[in-house]
Design goal:
Chain A has about 190 residues and is mainly alpha-helical. Chain A has 8 helices and no strands. Classes of the chains: A mainly alpha (about 190), B alpha+beta (about 350).
Chain lengths: ~190, ~350
């Protein structure tokens, strides 16, 4: 297609192995390669460049998770997969905004990807809850929890950076923070 | 074991920080204690979610960073189709346009429906006696042909339409409905005694359907004091009213009530009255119980029984004021003294009789 990026398009297996090996470059090349296609889809179906960005990034995340989980089979083209996910996500967004006019101008073949999109939607809900729970948790709890559970820092390091006199105090603090976070998380509907 | 220590133990277990001995003991405990097992699973799930959340945030950050480097605008330009602006306008707004159009159509139809335009307006019949024009014209032709055959001259063409009129001044100004005399070649009035006088229309107002005639016949000698007065103000609902006119060759009396201050479809020119009237009554006076003229009988709604209309007298008075001065020998002075007030209805009608005329239009 003439509208696609002129830079070399990475092969599908390059991308898949790149993702599996946490290659920054692979993700970047993937991103650059297919963004124009998604931009075209969204812009020509009542969307803005910002919509295109949101939808595209969500699709990349779907792909990323699928590859990481190991159940992405290379029997369909990456390009088709991304296009299908974006198409599905955009249809969903349009119907939420009541802007769906009943037809969508397609530029590619597409696959049925309802399951992937549905799964992603559920996970997004969990993440949104987690985000707001962390937000409500406040400092210093938020940082302690993030450092320990997300960034895998040791209690010793955390203890030092927060200036606790001994590790036990830090542990107690971390325990309390975690309990509060759970409470905040499960309180949300 | 306190909860805090329990969580710590679970974490150590999950992170593989326990010694083999400790681990075996913990697993043993876990098998035996279902509650502990649930706690382990719960904790694993929650911290797992936390971890995934962290990864997601990091990934989004990476993607955003990549996105920053892309020239979004250029790509957008490149991939956008550029249909003509009218197509674009339609594509963007066709749903709104369709909704607006349907609302407009609905509004027009509703307005037409409620104002009665969709009903067949022919049911509103003006009451001049246009008795079977077509029918008559064919008989006329027949007569003419016969007359020609016989070699006789046609003496008098029968009148085209008829109505009623009534005197407004003693020197021969007659009020009637405009539709009675519209399109007339010549107009005559005929009094109760059967005498005809030629008249001419000196003022007509199709809007309020009123016309003023003036007797121009040389044999006319004046009428004497008009017995009724003209009411300037509006009459009240349920006022007992009556009329007197020529739906047929002999005069016909009819009475009823003033049933509405407005005419057909809220027309403020008219009263609605329940007086039984017929073609030929048009142009007749409508009087109240005291004998004041409160209107001119005008029309009826044929689909609904008992809906008749009369022009309010104030419009008649306006019409009289508007008569061009050069048509008059002197300014008309309306009678203000009502000599009918205390009479019975029979006496009132008897007194009015000479002032009500059949209007014959040729």
């Amino acid at each position: 297609m003439s509208t696609e990026s002129k830079s070399s398009i990475p092969t599908d297996s390059e991308i898949v192995f790149g993702i599996l090996n946490n290659s920054e470059n692979a993700i970047k090349r993937l991103y650059v390669a297919y963004f124009p296609m998604v931009m075209q889809l969204i812009l020509n179906n009542n969307g803005t460049p910002d919509d295109a960005k949101d939808i595209y990034q969500e699709a990349i995340i779907v792909l990323y998770n699928k590859v990481k989980k190991g159940d992405f089979e290379l029997n369909s083209k990456l390009k088709t997969f991304i296009y299908s996910v974006c198409r599905r996500l955009w249809l969903k967004r349009l119907s939420q905004m009541n802007r769906y006019g009943g037809d969508i101008h397609d530029f590619n073949d597409y696959l049925p990807v309802e399951d992937e999109v549905e799964e992603q939607g559920e996970r997004d809900i969990q993440f949104t809850k987690m985000q707001s729970a962390l937000q409500m948790l406040g400092e210093p709890c938020k940082t302690i929890i993030e450092d320990f559970y997300i960034h895998n820092r040791s209690m010793q390091e955390i203890c030092e950076s927060f200036g606790y006199t001994n590790a036990d105090n830090a542990k107690t603090q971390k325990y309390k923070c975690l309990q509060r976070l759970k409470k905040l998380f499960f309180q949300q509907k | 074991m306190r909860d805090e220590q329990l969580i710590e133990a679970i974490e150590r277990y999950l992170n593989g920080e326990m010694s083999a001995e400790e681990r075996n003991a913990f697993e043993q405990l876990r098998r035996e204690n279902a509650e502990l097992d649930t706690r382990v699973v719960e904790h694993q799930q929650f911290t797992g979610l936390l971890k995934q959340y962290g990864e997601r945030v990091a990934l989004e950050k990476r993607l955003n960073a990549i996105h920053e480097e892309i020239d979004v605008h250029a790509i957008a330009e490149e991939v956008t189709m550029h249909p003509s602006w009218i197509v674009q306008l339609w594509r963007d707004h066709h749903s709104k346009i369709s909704v607006a159009a349907s609302i407009a159509i609905f509004a027009v139809l509703a307005t037409l429906f409620f104002t009665g335009y969709l009903n067949n307006n022919n049911s509103y019949t003006e009451l001049s006696r246009e008795v079977g024009r077509l029918n008559r014209s064919t008989t006329d032709m027949k007569k003419d042909i016969n007359a020609i055959k016989k070699g006789n001259r046609v003496i008098a063409a029968p009148d085209k339409s008829r109505g009623t009129g009534f005197a407004i001044t003693s020197n021969g100004l007659i009020a009637t409905s405009y539709h009675v005399i519209s399109g007339a070649d010549s107009i005559y009035i005929q009094d109760i005694a059967g005498r005809s006088f030629k008249v001419k229309a000196i003022y007509s107002d199709p809007q309020s359907d009123v016309a003023i005639l003036k007797v121009i016949d040389t044999t006319f000698r004046g009428l004497g004091q008009i017995p009724y007065a003209f009411k300037h103000s509006e009459s009240d609902l349920a006022e007992n009213v009556f009329t007197f006119g020529f739906p047929q060759d002999s005069p016909v009396y009819g009475d009823g009530r003033l049933t509405s201050a407005n005419g057909l479809n809220g027309d403020t020119l008219d009263y609605e009255i329940s007086v039984p009237i017929n073609p030929g009554n048009s142009g007749g006076p409508l009087l109240d119980s005291k004998g004041n003229v409160i209107g001119i009988v005008k029309a009826k709604e044929t689909r609904l029984e008992g809906m008749h209309f009369a022009l309010k007298s104030s419009y008649l008075i306006n019409a009289i004021k508007n008569i061009p001065e050069d048509s008059l020998t002197k300014v008309p002075v309306l009678n203000t003294e009502n000599s009918l007030a205390n009479l019975t209805r029979q006496q009132q009608v008897k007194k009015i009789k000479p002032y009500v005329f059949m209007v014959k239009v040729y």
